[in-house]
Design goal:
Elements: E1 3-6, H1 12-20, E2 24-27, H2 33-39, E3 45-48, H3 56-60, E4 67-70, H4 80-85, E5 89-91, H5 98-114, H6 116-124, E6 142-146, H7 150-161, E7 165-169, H8 175-180, E8 184-185, H9 188-194, E9 197-200, H10 214-219, E10 224-228, H11 237-246, E11 249-254, E12 273-275, H12 284-305
Parallel strand pairs: 1-2, 1-3, 3-4, 4-5, 6-7, 6-9, 7-8, 9-10, 10-11, 11-12
The structure holds D-malate.
């Protein structure tokens, strides 16, 4: 009977699936790297979210490991090169939290357009500052999508429903697909020059790192708003802070940061910045989806493919 270790907080649905499929499963979230290395040897599969770092050292301590399953999209916490070199398959769940993450991006766009977090804090403080919070409508505005894959295309769909004009930069987006989802495919420079709001939906790769660099932020329209629910490292945070202070960027909403957990940042002190602690995938529905999907995929592999 194959054995799987779940080392992060995964929905109990995953445990049920493994058991039902005849796989022995242990649920041990919160172990230190040393503790994990000490117990990993007998397992065939390791199921993680983002807290466990699947390093070369951990893989060295796991000679029987056949599969690492990431309940979520990004595999940034897995050393995929080292895993592949050892014949360990790395799998993710690319669809399970796409709607939830797209909805978070839309929520961030609304939060920025109407300054909801600041207005809420002010009202709760008893100030009733009705004249302070003048917002902007989304109707008719141009949304610039950097990345138009699983998540970006759902954001596009919702934005079209809000009667926004959507332009997308994504080298993998075909003209046909762009037409199907109601977006205009553009080059990055055109997007930077046209967007009223820019939202990022791309993984962090050598090509996308710092895609909103100081230079590219300077190319954006004055008064632009920026949303990042994808990955820290896509935006130059220091340059963004300066552009917010100068008023070139009117607001930014960030769910992800270059260093996480982000407990200190030049952005935190700025009034026109909304921050959440990497909550993009944090809904009950998405966590259930990714847990079910990762457990089924890992079970399929361990029972038939490994
Ligand atoms: C993902 O890659 O699935 C999201 O960023 C969510 C997460 O890391 O928990």
């Amino acid at each position: 009977m194959p054995r799987v270790l779940i080392s992060d907080k995964l929905s109990p649905a995953a445990i049920e699936i493994f058991k039902r499929r005849g796989i022995e499963v242990d649920f041990r979230p919160g172990l230190s790297p040393a503790e994990l290395r000490a117990i990993i040897a007998p397992y065939d599969g390791l199921a993680v979210r983002s807290a466990t770092k699947v390093t070369r050292e951990l893989l060295d301590a796991a000679p029987g490991l056949k599969v690492v399953g990431r309940a979520g999209i990004g595999v940034d916490n897995v050393d995929v090169t080292s895993a592949t070199a050892r014949g360990v398959v790395v799998m993710n769940t690319p669809y399970g939290n796409a709607i939830t993450t797209a909805e978070h991006a839309i929520a961030m766009i609304f939060a920025l357009a109407r300054q909801i977090p600041e207005a809420s804090a002010s009202t709760k403080a008893g100030k009733w500052e009705k004249n302070r919070f003048m917002g902007v409508e989304l109707f008719g505005k141009t949304l610039g999508l950097i990345g138009c894959g699983n998540i970006g295309s759902i954001v596009a769909d919702r934005a079209v429903g809000l009667h926004m004009k959507v332009v997308a930069y994504d080298p993998f987006l075909s003209e046909k697909r762009a037409v199907e989802i109601g977006v205009e495919k553009v080059e990055l420079n055109e997007l930077l020059e046209r967007a009223d709001i820019v939202t990022l939906h791309t993984p962090l790769t050598e090509q996308t790192r710092n895609i909103l660099s100081r230079q590219n932020i300077a190319r954006l329209k004055r008064g632009v708003r920026i949303v990042n629910c994808a990955r820290g490292g896509l935006v130059d945070e220091q340059a963004l802070a300066e552009a917010l202070q100068s008023g070139h960027v009117a607001g930014a909403a960030l769910d992800v940061f270059e260093t996480e957990p982000a407990t200190d940042s030049p952005l935190f002190a700025l009034e026109n910045v909304v921050c959440t602690p990497h909550l993009g995938a944090a809904t009950a529905e998405a966590q259930e989806n990714v847990a079910l999907q990762v457990a089924d995929q890992m079970a399929d592999y361990l029972l038939t493919g490994a």
